[in-house]
Each structure stands twice: as structure tokens, then as C-alpha cells.
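Here comes my example:
=====
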Amino acid sequence: MSEESGVLDVYRSLGQLYTIQRRFAEAEEVYRLAIPLAPQDPYAYILLAETQLDRGLTAAAETTLLDALDFVDSSADIYCTLGDINRTQADYREAVGYFGNCARLDPASAAAHEERHLIRILEIDPEHPRALGYLLLSDLYERLGDPIRSAEYGRRGRALPGR
């Protein structure tokens, strides 16, 4: 383990300790010190963004992650985190885009596929349970590799009154 890696681990541990103690401003400060030690590491940015979210600084967290895309080696986890932020803010269209980027970069990412599935369900008007059924069938057929049936059930779900 290099000295730089050891210092990075100490900063992360200290940031997590501060977070557990709900000392979010101090955790944010420590994570900011960690980023220059490993600017290509997505988790340094993700931890900082999660701390900003804990402080209610949603826009700052999103900016942190968007800025990180210029530096990180693998951005799939950053896109998933951006998707989660937007899902939480009920900005489902943005969330779907971010989760789609995550899935393209890491096709095996179950989180990306499950989150996209969750978003489809959350967008459904609860007054139209048949729409939910059709969209779930559409998703099932998509996963089974039957795009024709998937598209048909998707059209049926979207065609119901109030959709």
C-alpha cells in the first residue's frame, strides 16, 4: 500500500465516522481533502455527494458528480448516483437518462436495471392499475427478449385514459 493510498483510506474512514456522528460539514471537508489524492476514483466524489445530500445540498451534490465525470476512470457508479438523486427529486426523465448511461457503461449493473424498472412503476398514475399491469408485462417481455410483445403492452399501458 502506498503512503498516498493509506492517507486516502484514513480520510475516507474519518469522513465515514463524521457521517455516522451526523457531523456532515466536517465529513464534507475531509472528503474534499481526499479527492486530490485520487481524482480518478469515483467513490471519493460519491462520498462527498452523499454527504452534501445529507446536508440537504442536492444541487451541490449533483454538481459534484457532474464535475467528477471529467476526471474518473469509470463513471457507471456516478451515473447511478445521479440517477438516484433525480429519482428522489421526482425528476424521472433525467433519472432514466442517468440510469441508462450507467447500464451502458456497466451492462451487468443490476442497480441500473432495477432503478429504471422502479422509475417506470413510479411514473404510473395509481388511478389506473391496468396501466401498471401492462407496463409490468412490457418490462417482463423486454427482459425475456421479446421486443414485439414488450412494445405492444407498453402501447396498451400508455393508451389508457389519463395517461
Summary: The chain has nine helices and no strands. The domain at 1-73 is CATH 1.25.40.10 (Serine Threonine Protein Phosphatase 5, Tetratricopeptide repeat). Residues 47 and 156 are 42 Å apart (CA to CA). Residues 3-20 form the longest helix (18 residues).
